[in-house]
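Records of this kind hold a single protein each, on a pair of labelled lines. Below, a sample record shows both lines together.
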Amino acid sequence: MSKGVRRLPLCFSSEPEEDEGWECRRSPVRMGPTALKGEEKREVINGGAYVVSDDAAFDPGAPPPFRIAEIRDAIPSHCWVKDRWRSLSYVCRDILVVFGLMAAAVHFNSWAFWPFYWAAQGTMFWALFVLGHDCGHGSFSNSPRLNSVVGHILHSSILVPYHGWRISHKTHHQNHGNVENDESWVPLPEKLYRSLDFSTRALRFKVPFPLFAYPLYLWSRSPGKNGSHFNPYSDLFSPGDRKDVILSTLCWSLMVFLLITLSFAIGPLQLLKLYGVPYMIFIMWLDCVTYLHHHGHEQKLPWYRGKEWNYLRGGLTTVDRDYGLFNNIHHDIGTHVIHHLFPQIPHYHLVEATKAARPVLGKYYREPKKSGLIPIHLIENLIRSIKEDHYVSDTGEVVYYQTDPQLSGSKKIY
C-alpha cells in the first residue's frame, strides 16, 4: 500500500456507551458548506475503499475509521474509577469559597468590591452546577443515593430542578448531534426557523439574549419542543420519572421559598446583590459554555438525522475548549469530547483520558485554541456563531448550519 494512504472499511459502525450494536452506515448526503470545500481523495485499491491523507480535504462529516470500543480501550483503566471522597472534597472546596465570598461581601459592603464579588460568585455557582452535573451522570460516585442527595443540594441552591434537568441532559447525551432528537442547543430546521416571528429569532440569535436563555429553557424548552422540566407529565419524561421530577420540583420550590424569606429578612436589594446578580452571571456561564461545546468551531461541523446518525458520529461533533485559569475552577468542563462519549468518567480524569484517546481520534479531535489567563478569545467564536449559525436544511441526513442574511445583516449565505 502506498505511503500516506489508510484503509477504510466498506461500511462503518460504532457503539454507544451501553455497547449496543449499530448498523453499517453508508456515505452521507451532505447539505452544507463543507461539501463544497472538497471531499477526501478516494481511491479503490485491491477492491477496498481508501482515503488518501490530505489535511485540506478532511471531511468532518465522513464516518470515522474507528469504533468507540477502540477509544475506550485506549483510556487507562484507573480513569474510570470514581472516588466519592475526592468528589466530596471538591464540593467542600466550592461551598467554602461560596460562603467565604458571601462573608467578604457582607463585611466590605462596598461598591468597589461588589463587581468582583458578582463575577467570582457567579463563577462559583457555575462550578456548583458542574459538580451537580457529575452527580446526574453518575460520575460523582458509585452510590445513586449519594449522587441524588448531593445533586439536589447543589442544583436546588442555584434554582435548577435536579432530576428534571438530569433526565433531559441524559436525552442530550444519548442523541448528541442529532437534529431531530438532541435536546441542548439543537439546530432549527429551516421550515421551523422561517415560522418564527422576527422578534423570536432576534432573541435567540442576537447577543446577548441567548446568554440568558437557560431559565426559559427549563420552563418551556426550545422552539419546536414541548414540555417543562418542572412538570412530571411533560413530554420530556416517562411515567417512571414522575416521582423523581416531583421531588426535584419540590426542592426547587423550597429554595424559592427560602429566597423569598431572606428578602424579607435582609431586604430585596441586599438579596439581589448577594444572590440575584451572581445567579445571572452563572446563567451566562452555563449558556456560553454549553453553546460553545457544540458551536463556534472555526470549521463548520456536521449535524445528523436519520440513518446517518449514530452515537459515535454525534459525539465527535462536540468541541473541547480551553478556559485558562477557569479550567480547574469549573472542574475541566471544557474537556468535553471524551465526556460526551463516556460521561461516566469522573471530571478529574478527563484530561488524562483525552490525552490517551487523541491518537485514536486523529483529525476527529479538534485541538482547542490555547487560552491566556482569561479566555477572551472565545468571545469571538461565540459572537460569530450566534451571528451565522441560524438553521439547517429540512432535507439531507448530514447537514451544516446556514445563515439568515436578513438577521445577520449579510448578503452572503454561509
Remarks:
- The CA atoms of residues 32 and 294 lie 17 Å apart.
